[in-house]
Specification:
The chain is α+β, with helices and mostly antiparallel strands. About 55% of the residues lie in helices and about 10% in strands. It is globular, with a radius of gyration of 17 Å. Pfam families: GST_N_3.
Length: about 200
């Protein structure tokens, strides 16, 4: 398995975490390096990460990559994707991904000196993050979304999102006791430590 991405990307980190936990070997092609970026652009019309090549299979979306890995390798100790929880978990992932996409936009615009109040659309994006994070806090049941006490795709999505927001100083999520508790609880996992952005 050849995984294209950077160690700072939260979407790439989800794949790295799952591979670490399930013992799936891969080679990381660093797309922050010029050669890796060129190779990515030559192979992937989206120019986005993560992108994987597994034998003859080429996939350029983190959700589809995870689907493929679970289909081929099983879900290991993770909450299976299918079951009565499926639609709620899918909604949670969609909400968390939306918050992350908006946080990434704010981060890059800030780097260019553009603040969220520069346009109504950007203000709406910033407010959307707050709305989603409030919703997520209500949905958490301690450190998990479901009573099975297992890590599933929604917990993986939330951890990578909160940790990236904290790493990039987009929002002070670590000051919220619920999110701080979630980060501290799951952050003890060896694979989260090994895949931390630097």
């Amino acid at each position: 398995m050849k995984l294209y991405g950077s160690i700072t990307s939260p979407f790439v980190r989800r794949i790295r975490f799952i591979c670490s936990e399930m013992g799936i070997p891969f080679t990381l092609v660093d797309t922050m390096a010029e050669a890796g970026q060129k190779e990515l652009r030559d192979k992937n019309p989206l120019w986005k990460v993560p992108y994987v090549e597994i034998d003859d299979v080429k996939i350029w979306d983190s959700h589809t990559i995870i689907d493929y890995l679970f289909e081929k390798k099983g879900s290991g100790n993770f909450r299976p994707k299918s079951g009565p929880h499926h639609y709620r978990e899918a909604n949670l992932q969609t909400a968390i991904d939306q918050a992350l996409d908006n946080a990434i936009l704010i981060f890059y615009l800030n780097k260019e000196g553009i603040k969220p109040d520069a346009a109504p659309y950007l203000t709406k994006n910033a407010l959307r993050i707050s709305s989603i994070l409030n919703y997520i806090k209500q949905e958490l049941n301690g450190n998990f979304f479901f009573t099975d006490g297992k890590v599933g795709l929604s917990e993986i999505a939330l951890y990578t999102t909160l940790d990236w927001i904290r790493f990039r100083s987009v929002l002070p999520v670590e000051e919220d006791p619920i999110f701080a508790g979630f980060l501290n609880f799951h952050g003890q996992n060896k694979s989260w430590k090994e895949t931390a952005p630097k």
